[in-house]
Amino acid sequence: AAKTPSMRRWAGAMAVAGAGLTTALVATVAATVVDPAPDRAALARVPAALRDDCEAEVEPMTGANSALSCRDAVLNLFPDTRSANEAYSRLVGEAGVATGQGDCADWTGAEHRYPATGPMRGRVLCHERDGSAMLVWTDEQARTVTRADAPAAEGAALLQAWSAWTGGDPAFPTAQERELFDFAAGTDCKRLSNLDSAAIAGVTCIPTGSGAREVSYLRFASLPELRASFTGRVGEAKAPSGVSCAGPDFLGTGRHDWLSVDLGQYLCRPGPDGTLAMEWSMEPLLIAGRVTGSERGALHGWWWEWHLAPLSRIVAAVNARAAPPFPTGPERALLDRIPIASRLNCLRPSPGQVWADIGGVTPVAAVACGRTSGAGLVVYYQFADAEAMRRTFNAGSDTEPEKDCTRLPEEFYGSRPYARGNGSSGTLRCGTHDSTGERYLQWTDERFAIAVYAHWGTEPFAIIDWWRHDAGPA
Question: How much is the pTM?
Fold first, then answer.
């Protein structure tokens, strides 16, 4: 095994530095290197604050090419990152500490990545054994595994010194952490110390509303990293695909959307000690969220209410990454035809939604908006002319009874021409889906060659009242 740092040298540093230990360790970078002297390439892999009195270590760790004893730490130099990580994992196992367990600031035995924000540099293990506080950490770029010990009573000072040796953490909050505040459905947010290895920032907050205990958010640098991280958590949970979190087992994963546009993935699973967790990715924002609680229905209810907050920012991100960016010229012209009261969180509908509404027809433009006072999803389609609109709208509608939807017919089912005082005219169709009881409303406007499909409707009176006053086109 590698030689541990000299307790005499550590004690000497403590005596000289006193309360200013960290400053002294950073400032004291001596040029003297005792024989046998490490070569320049090896020293370049040592943190600057630890290059004082470096000498070759007799017994490097298994897998290491060499080792250096530098002031208060022993550094093992490996040929590649993989062998360094394997050696570190063995030490974690020997310490009896679980990967990702706790925060080293508590000194109760912990392991996590560092730094706490920004790209990951490595991982750190801290624990106490036989009256000594022990720190072991990796540096992926330098391909090193380093160990430093101190008397247990000086563990806090050792941790402070380690923070200086490795560059420390920036002051909270950083710009990326502050950005997460804007998306957090919670208050009193703090830095999440044990980040996912691929994340670049994380915060944990007290949830807004009721039904949850804690909510946290992670920010990723790229979509592949976000997806890989989420896929790993799904695999770890062994969650079946396409299973709703409203089910009795509270174990499942699937995709979630807004107005038919895919936003990311969700995962629900039981946790330790009777806890439950819901996780979700918000791919347009490169963010993942996690909320915990103890009651299945309440936790799922919290997620349903808050995972889309703030909706306007999510929609803006979806539209910015759309190809081409939304809105195009024809989409902008169609948006201008939608009354302001219903021009809410609008975006380009998914190809699947367009197919469900109008089949294989390609409209001039299509815009989806919601939620309105009458329907959750409203899709407006601009056609080249009124004939093309009528041909598409009337396809497959021969079986509908000729009933006036504005008179709230039985089962809210019918179709009939309409004319309104504002000059609009066309066909108004209404219905109720047998399997779900969902109300829908569909209509055309001959003036502008626009057809509208409103889904997830409220009660018949409410959806008709919305159609009369706020639906459009205008």
Answer: 0.76
